[in-house]
Amino acid sequence: MSVFYFEIADAKPNIPCIGENLPSLAAARCFALKYAALLLCDQEDVFWEGEEWVMTVTDANRLTMFTIMICATAAPATLNLKKLI
Predict the structure, then answer these.
(1) Fewer CB within 10 Å: N-end or C-end of the chain?
(2) What does the alpha-carbon distance between residue 42 and residue 20 come to, in Å, rounded to a whole number?
(3) What is the pTM of this model?
(4) DSSP H/E element including 27
(5) Spatial contact of 60 and 21, defined as CB atoms under 8 Å apart
(6) CA-to-CA distance for 76 and 43, rounded, in angstroms?
């Protein structure tokens, strides 16, 4: 098992870095996608306002293993839906 750290830059509100013991880099990639999905669902109002998230995953030595960039843009037709709901 290796420790991998998952950090999201510039998220508002701030999301603390977490560390997870995982068996492989492949497991860390899978965990990163699932973790990102959970965070996006929990903070969808902020995310859909156009904020870009960058998740950096590092190993125990804080060497970057990979980065995930996540950005969404609502279509103009959906921008007024919040007012209707």
Answers:
(1) C
(2) 20
(3) 0.80
(4) helix 25-42
(5) no
(6) 21
